[in-house]
Structures are given as structure tokens and as C-alpha cells.
Design goal:
single chain; mainly alpha; about 85% helix
Length: about 250
Amino acid sequence: MNDYNDLPNYYNQNGYNTASQVESEVTFKKYVASVMRRTYTKMCLGLLVTAITAVLILSSPAVMSALFSSTAVFWVLMALELGVVIYLSARIEKLSNGTATALFYAYSVLNGVTLAPLFLVYTGESIALTFFITAGTFGAMSIYGYVTKQDLTKFGSYLIMALLGLIVASVVNLFMHSSTMEWIISLVGVAIFVGLTAWDAQTIKRMAATTDPSMVAKVSTWGALSLYLDFINLFLYLLRFFGSTRD
């Protein structure tokens, strides 16, 4: 292209009719990218809230004793976590933006409470190592899900079915106490959440591109929750491979 007279031909050859369509396409891509940034920022803040909560819980032996001296308290906390996730996922469209965001951060706090004992089981060095491995893997799969032109919809459906099977196997192994089964479950869990990270990234991108702008805040909250769950579960399964227990 030597001069501005060649612009119409250039646009037509690349699937555009006018320069304004090129500008609109660029603006649209920037809009989608901004929604994705908002989603990942909220997810990272959720992880930060979880980490701070875990540290605060660990800093108080009295609180640790009160929370984990009884298995009943632990299961109540787990039930609350599950309830928040189910409620937020099912009611996201009807909740106000503020309520949805508050529930997301409330879940992050609850998760910080239940994850605090990990620091008593595993060394800080191995937890840090696993975190960085998780972050690298999560980041790579998020980028893949965002940029790939392959439709991951069917792939995601298989992953959801595999996840249900994994949950059943995990419950069964609570009674079997099989170390071999635990390793298999961990390996499959890593594979599932690696795939789900890419699938969720693509799903959020599509929602950002098709949802009314007035719903952006809710899309970012739902997306942040989905990615947060992917990250935490990937971290927990990887910790079984890279975590070193305290003597």
C-alpha cells in the first residue's frame, strides 16, 4: 500500500468495507480486553483476600483451635463455601452488582479460613513453589483459551462430566483411604482444571463480547469466581505432587 488511495482496496482484501469498520473492530476488541482485565483483576484480588485471611487465622492459635478442634466446624465451613458458590452462580443475573461482588469476596474469606491448615501441613517453601507452578500453568492456559480460534465448547462439556466423576471418586476414596487412588485422582484433577482454565477463559471472552454492557460487572464477577475456582483447585491438586510435609 503506497498511498491513501489504496486504502479501500486494502480494507476490502482484509474483509472490511470501510475504515470505520476497522475502527469499530479495534474498539470492540479493546472493550472485550477491558472486560477480561476487570475479571482477572477481581480474581487476583480474591486470591489476595484468601491469602491474607489464611495468614490472619494462622497468627492466632486461639482462633485456629476454635475453628479446627472439631471436624463439625470444618464441615460447616465447607458447606457454607459450597452454598455461596451455588447461590452466586444460580442468582448472578438477579443479584445487584454490589451483592454479587460481596458474595465473591465472602467466599474468598471462607476459603482462606479452610485453607489455613495447609500451612501447618506443608512447608512454606513447597507452598510457594506450588503457587508459582500453578500461576504459570494457569496463565498459559488462560492465554490459550483467550487467543485460540478452536471452539472449546464440546471440550468443556466433557471436562464437566469428568469433574463430576472426579467428585464421586474423591467421595468414595474418603472411605477407601487408598493412596494409589489419591494419586490418580490428583493427576486427573490437574488435567481437568488445566482444561477448564482454557475453557472458562474462552467462555468469559464470549460473554464479554455478547452481553449487554450494563451486565459487565456481573460477567466479571461470575468470571472471576470461575477462574478463582480453577486456580485454587489446580493449586490443591498440584500441591499433592510438589508439597513437602513438615517433619
